[in-house]
Automatic annotation (TrEMBL):
Family: Belongs to the chalcone isomerase family.
Pfam families: Chalcone
An MF annotation (GO) of this entry: intramolecular lyase activity
InterPro entries for the chain: Chalcone_isomerase, Chalcone_isomerase_3-sand, Chalcone_isomerase_bundle_sf, Chalcone_isomerase_sf, CHI3-like
Domain of life where this protein originates: Eukaryota
Protein name (Swiss-Prot/TrEMBL): Chalcone-flavonone isomerase family protein
Amino acid sequence: MSSEVVMVDEIPFPSEIKLNKPLLLLGHGITDMEIHFLQIKFTAIGVYLDPEITNHLQQWKGKSALELAENDEFFDALVSAPVDKFLRIVVFKEIKGSQYGVQLESSVRDRLAEADKYEEDEEEALEKVVEYFQSLYFKKDSIITYYFPAGLGIAEIVFTCEGKEDSKIKVENANVVEMMMRWYLDGKRGISPATISSLAEKISAELSK
């Protein structure tokens, strides 16, 4: 991991991580909710992408960050670009893994149904992911990572919590994998508007280089 860090609401994120090749932190933000005028923060998010992603987004060169953030086609292209993608999610507020799993399940299932891709195979694959999260407890500062290797249609999810062994699952249904990615990276429909704005800003700057 890179020695340089970016602080996302007091949580340090390395500016670069090395998997098969270096991936850059090109977006970050939080998930939160306002309850009785109080902001409750749930997670901090870092989105790491192969810098070559800009080769697949050239048609948006010259567009402002605001234009990109509002453009669904831009995020479709980002999701489908055949490059490595990696999400690092750090927990602020303790919750049961089952609560997170239910949110993921609902979002992924709705997106699959909307795209007319929710068949028996998808239901089974999604069920396994939900079961995986049900066995976990998200303490403060525990970490969930999603690794989406380029062009393979798979996701490797790892949960890291201090004092415990890492817990892993591989998801091999390409439709479920795509919709999990979209949960975080789907423009105006993404779970974290702050992350979407940040991605648009960073990629707009990269495209103008």
